[in-house]
Amino acid sequence: MIPKDDFRFQSHVLLVELDAATTKLMMLVVAGELSGSHWEEALARQSSAYTAWISAAKGIQIDPMPALDGRPNDGSLTSEK
Fold first, then answer.
1. Burial per residue of 20-44, b for 16 or more beta-carbon CB atoms within 10 angstroms, e otherwise
2. pLDDT by residue (tens digit) across 27-76?
């Protein structure tokens, strides 16, 4: 897999987990369960999912130069013109 596709796949997995963990936490808020073991577990899961996503997102490297110097946007050093 090329790095961009690999990142997209990893991002999808991490964001699905973050969404599920956040949804569970919101369900507990709606139910009024703001303490106890279920709350602590859901809070830990959401915090862990958020931390994992932020760690992955910090690794994004954006190269603004291809648009300016004519290089292809796939990270290679040669242009196919």
1. ebeeebeebeeeeeeeeeeeeebee
2. 999 999 999 999 999 999 999 999 999 988 887 766 666 666 666 666 55
Report d(CA 65, CA 25) in Å as an integer: 42
Residues near 2 by beta carbon (within 8 Å), at least 6 away in sequence: 74
Instruction: Answer yes or no: pTM beyond 0.85.
Output: no
Q: Which of 55, 54, 16, 24 is nearest to 40 (CA)?
A: 24
Task: Measure the N-to-C terminal CA separation of the chain; round to a whole number of Å.
Answer: 25
**54: three-class secondary structure by DSSP:** helix
